[in-house]
Amino acid sequence: xATAAMSSTLNQLTTCCLPKRSNPTKLRVFTLRCSIQTxxxxxxxxxxxxxxxxxxxxxxxxxxxxxxxxxxxxxGEVVFNTSLTGYQEILTDPSYAGQFVLMTNPQIGNxxxxxxxxxxxxxxxxxxxxxxLSIGTSNWRCTETLSAYLAERNIMGIYDVDTRAITRRxxxxxxxxxxxxxxxxxxxxxxxxxxxxxxxVGIDLISGVSCKTPYEWVDKTNxxxxxxxxxxxxxFHVVAYDFGIKHNILRRLASYGCxxxxxxxxxxxxxxxxxxxxxxxxxxGPGDPSAVPYAVETVKEILxxxxxxxxxxxxxxxxxxxxxxxxxxxxxxxGGNHPVRNLRTGDVEISAQNHNYAVxxxxxxxxxxxxxxxxxxxxxxxxxxxxxxxxxxxxxPEASPGPHDSDNAFxxxxxxxxxxxQGA
Length: 424
Fold this sequence. Notes:
The chain is an alpha/beta fold. The chain folds into three domains: 9-40, no CATH class; 53-197, 3-Layer(bba) Sandwich (Glucose Oxidase, domain 1); 215-423, Class I glutamine amidotransferase (GATase) domain (Rossmann fold), CATH 3.40.50.880. The protein is built from nine helices and 21 strands. The protein has helices spanning 87-91, 146-152, 163-173, 188-197, 247-255, 269-274, 293-302, 313-321, 408-423, and strands at 9-19, 27-37, 53-57, 62-69, 73-81, 99-103, 107-108, 127-129, 132-133, 156-159, 176-181, 215-217, 236-241, 258-263, 279-282, 307-311, 326-342, 348-359, 369-374, 380-385, 390-393. The strands form four sheets. The protein has a ten-stranded mixed beta sheet, sandwiched between helices. Belongs to the CarA family. Residues 51-181 form the Carbamoyl-phosphate synthase small subunit N-terminal domain. It is an enzyme of class 6 (ligase). This is Carbamoyl phosphate synthase small chain, chloroplastic.
């Protein structure tokens, strides 16, 4: 109860007249007494969070929002992801380095986070942009809330922002550089200048996410989640170049019977070939493939000497190593619902994708075959060069998160290595 010292009250009497049910011509009279605080009493604190963050885009638009996770000021490229689930896998995907990920699914955080769903040892993205932050969690594997998880990893997040409007702007104008800030001391003009002075094109982001020394990977897909068993198959040694590799790519290879050695992005091709592997995997990774010419040279030195499988960034590096070119897409492909046609079989796969660059199929030399096409925009989604035992996909066959339509690509890689072994 408020005390006299805290506030004074204004009492107001209101007389209401209602007809009695038994006799409509007579009235029932009663009095309401209302007590309200006057302005001199002061207002109570709002029971909800107020806007304390800004997202300033290079086009000059300013988006007010509420913050969660870490505080401060961060610059990055804004991209939208259309996945309905799997935000923790997205947070820990190294391919998002240097980017703010905007989730088009309106409510995020309702399942919390857990250690089993992480795709790498840390979060590499610049920040997370969502419409609604769930106020509670409901999942039997949940160990922590999303907000606490991001705060511990120094990742900024904002919510209560119009993600639909921002997505439409990105689809119309293309990916935009933005600055996310919770610092009131920074003026809008200063943040806008920061966004226009920074560029993600031409930056080597791979070196910042790759491992530093080689290691052996032995973990397979958990039997509870393993949908494609490969018991009793022969073992193949695969050297996996870590350009930002996801754990579930390695788990799927191990589940298909591979012995895996993971090496850094700068690992010499000569060292790889000296291991006499059955195959080499060039992994996914962030940024511009043209910004890592050393990786392209490594790919060139390996092609034709051992079976090769490229995924996402690995696919783009293969395209360049084969003599083709890559280009930056308008807003890229980010999500778990992209239809892709396998031109060899005619089958359509629903795929998980995360990339801002693509291979120009017109620039590829004779003998290189386009095997998959994205049905949303016709872009190249897969390559093969049978004469040199090369295959690649622009999307993620491990699909974490996403559907498992493309998992058989790992089986195709196994079969290619088996054919080479038998023919040797």
